[in-house]
Amino acid sequence: MHIISVTELDSSQHPGLDDYLNLTDVALRKKLEPAGGLYLAESEKVIARAIAAGHRPRSLLTQPKFLEQAERLLAKWPETPVYVAAEELLTELTGYRMHRGVIAAMHRPEPTDPGELLQNAHTVLVLENIVDHTNVGAAFRNAAALGADAVLVSEECADPLYRRSVRVSMGTVLQIPWARLPNWQRAGELFRLHGFETVALALDPQAIPIREYAAKRAPRVALMLGTEGHGLSRAALQTADQTVIIPMQHGVDSLNVAATSAVALYALLNEI
User: Fold this and answer.
1) Which one is the CATH code of 6-107: 3.20.20.70, 3.30.1330.30, 3.40.50.2300, 3.40.50.1820?
2) Could you tell me the pTM of the whole model?
3) Residue 25 above 70 pLDDT?
């Protein structure tokens, strides 16, 4: 048996529960996001990926029937506090029903330097100001599945390590390298320094079909996608070396940003 620190709960009044108690995602970000803070990982698969990525668990919350999952997950971290409670108390604690057995508070890793990330990359996905955590998580999953080397997110983009982003990505946000970009002036210089051609998905008269671009793509490409409502900002578009589109039919002008990332990355990485 690996777990050596199991605490059975009969109320929410325990100092170790502060990481879980009545915290909405927004409150979690404001209170705990700074470097050296934490994030929440939910389900055995996601927590296992977090630990495999070298992230250290801070504590784990579960029901008695899922203790075997907790034991497997914490084989290398047996000193990690494990809090066990009935489903009703867990719902009261977290504010939602826990369907995936276990949830862990993980120590957030130090931010990655975007320049270091770009040094050995060839195809990266850039997400600007996307506010929906589901879209962020889905885009990360697409990037990992289709073979992108890394994901870069703008300063105002939703946190990839939010619980919902992590869950929707199936933990791939913990596998694919990512970093936050500085403002676009500095970001543009960074891409140029590392030999990247910046390619924007945008409804622009000068845009060419993504398949046409893919046939003659540059060796290093940063594929830029913008926010759900208005797309890429003017500053981002001014940074772009090329604009591309995914041709649409039946009067539809664009796809959801997560779907767009899948189609565009497939085109760039599979030469369709």
Assistant:
1) 3.30.1330.30
2) 0.86
3) no
